[in-house]
Design a protein that fits this description.
Elements (H helix, E strand, L loop, with lengths): L4 E5 L5 E3 L5 E10 L5 E5 L5 E2 L1 E3 L2 E10 L1 E10 L4 E17 L1 H4 L2 E2 L10 E4 L5 E3 L21 H14 L2 E3 L2 H12 L3 E5 L22 H11 L6 E5 L2 H4 L2 H4 L2 H15 L7 E4 L11 H15 L5 E4 L14 H20 L9 E7 L6 E7 L5 E2 L7 E5 L2 E2 L2 E7 L2 E9 L8 E4 L10 E2 L8 E5 L1
Parallel strand pairs: 2-9, 9-14, 9-15, 11-14, 15-16, 16-17
Antiparallel strand pairs: 1-3, 3-7, 4-5, 4-8, 6-7, 8-9, 10-13, 11-12, 18-19, 19-24, 20-26, 21-22, 21-25, 23-24, 25-27
Helix pairs in contact: 3-9, 7-8
Length: 453
């Protein structure tokens, strides 16, 4: 008599979130309409028997160590044999936000995939992570569709797979750096959507399920097991170019982070996000752009277990999207901060952050800026410095800038004229400022200001 077995869980290439003890349980479920038992094992271990009830079988392999790839084998009393290959136990990281998290770099010079870095794609399949990670119209959740008609959407999906030219992202590099540093495999949960505002990510829309961004993200986390190591976030462009959307960005973002942590019952879950990069646009938009950047910097010091990664030194592939070189570098920076938050790496600091600003002479022409979180020393470039100072709209010209003597974590700025009290200092003011100040590990100074001096 013929019999059929269907394995519903796990699926090939799936990554299971480890516990703090570096193990995970792997649940097994499926259907079977034959006679005799269903047995299972991780290759190289002893066979065990699954529970069968009304045509459904289930089991759980306990305490599988971090690592892999593991091969799950199943056999039945009727002679069927099934293999579920390439399972990993490691850390799951959510990739959320808008298009720069999707990845819009040209599909050239891509990051090489790695067998220990997998992705949960929008078509609900697991696989080795390779660009493009994000194919929105392949999602089962309507919130991600640009075309409602299923036949037309399938045509678009085929065209994108065969002829699409963009899709380089930061995710693969992030996963590889994490794995190399820790030996813990990585699963990337793709959840981003280009062109979206913080309001569109509102957790209050969760009840809409797959018709909301937040609902879709939570559903996908649930399908992946319901637990994650942390979240990577790159978003803000859609809010920064709209004066109305950008107001109160910090508080809205704070509420988003706190709600994600609450819904996942993980109050200290690491959350690593990107400060907005440069933008080739109308300078009239710069006030809103800089406001969001400032909010992003401020929030880092107000919430526990969060870290911000500057991107102001990035290069673009168009007016607003990072190119593949900058995305890979950003993936590495995100990984460093994830190592600091998730693994407690004390050798990794935040990167340079302004700490104290003071004039060091009575004429107010020599300004000292102290930084904290610096790896080694600050390294001013020989080009434009990225700092601007004005009082009531009148600029004060910077003659020179250099590393402070006997203090590699401070910068000295010499001004042409005395600066009156109440003047304002910026670093990275505008949409495309010349910001090249970094520390010894290549961590850049973020956009900040205005600071009253």
């Amino acid at each position: 008599m013929n019999s059929n077995i269907t394995v519903l869980s796990p699926v090939p290439y799936q990554v299971f979130q480890r516990s703090d003890d570096y193990v995970a349980d792997i649940p097994i479920a499926g259907t079977y309409d034959g006679e005799g038992p269903v047995e299972y094992r991780i290759e190289g271990t002893d066979w065990q028997q699954a529970d069968i009830n009304d045509g459904h079988f289930s089991a759980k392999i306990l305490n599988v160590p971090v690592g892999g790839p593991y091969l799950l084998e199943l056999k039945t009393g009727a002679g069927a044999y099934v293999r579920i290959p390439d399972l990993l136990v490691g850390d799951l990281w959510v990739l959320a936000g808008q298009s720069n998290m999707d990845g819009c770099g040209k599909l050239i010079n891509l990051e090489t995939p790695h067998k220990m870095v997998h992705a949960f794609y929008y078509d609900e399949t697991w696989g080795i992570a390779r660009d493009p990670l994000c194919r929105l119209n392949e999602s089962i959740d309507p919130v991600h569709w640009s075309i409602d008609d299923p036949l037309e959407r399938e045509k678009l999906n085929r065209w994108n797979r065969n002829f699409g030219t963009i899709g380089a992202s930061l995710g693969v590099r992030f996963g590889k750096v994490m794995y190399k540093a820790t030996g813990v495999p990585v699963g990337l949960l793709v959840c981003s959507h280009g062109g979206t505002s913080l309001a569109q990510w509102d957790p209050a829309l969760k009840h809409l399920g797959g018709r909301s961004l937040y609902g879709s993200m939570m559903r996908r986390i649930s399908v992946a097991g319901g637990k994650v190591a942390g979240c990577l976030w790159y978003q803000g462009e859609s809010d920064a170019i709209s004066p109305e959307r950008g107001v109160g960005y910090k508080e809205k973002f704070r509420q988003f982070i706190e709600t994600v942590r609450s819904d996942l019952q993980s109050p200290e879950m690491p959350f690593v996000y990107v400060q907005l990069a440069c933008f080739f646009g109308d300078e009239a938009l710069s006030e809103g752009w800089n406001r969001v950047q400032t909010d992003q910097l401020a929030l880092e010091s107000e919430l526990a277990n969060v870290a911000m990664v500057p991107a102001i030194d990035s290069t673009l592939s168009d007016s607003i999207h990072l190119d593949s070189v900058s995305l890979r570098r950003l993936g590495e920076r995100l990984a460093f901060q994830a190592l600091r938050l998730r693994f407690g790496r004390t050798d990794i600091l935040s990167g340079p952050r302004p700490k104290r600003i003071e004039f060091v002479n009575d004429s107010r022409t020599l300004l000292r800026i102290h930084f904290e979180g610096v790896h080694g020393a600050l390294h001013p470039s020989t080009g434009r410095c990225g700092f601007t100072i004005d009082a009531n709209g009148a600029p004060h010209y910077i003659v020179s800038w250099a590393q402070a003597k006997n203090d590699p974590t401070s910068i000295m700025i010499t001004l042409e004229d005395p600066v009156p009290a109440g003047s304002l200092l910026w670093y990275g003011r505008g949409l495309n400022p010349p910001c090249e100040l970094k520390d010894s590990q290549g961590f850049p100074v973020p956009v900040f200001g205005p600071v009253t001096i």
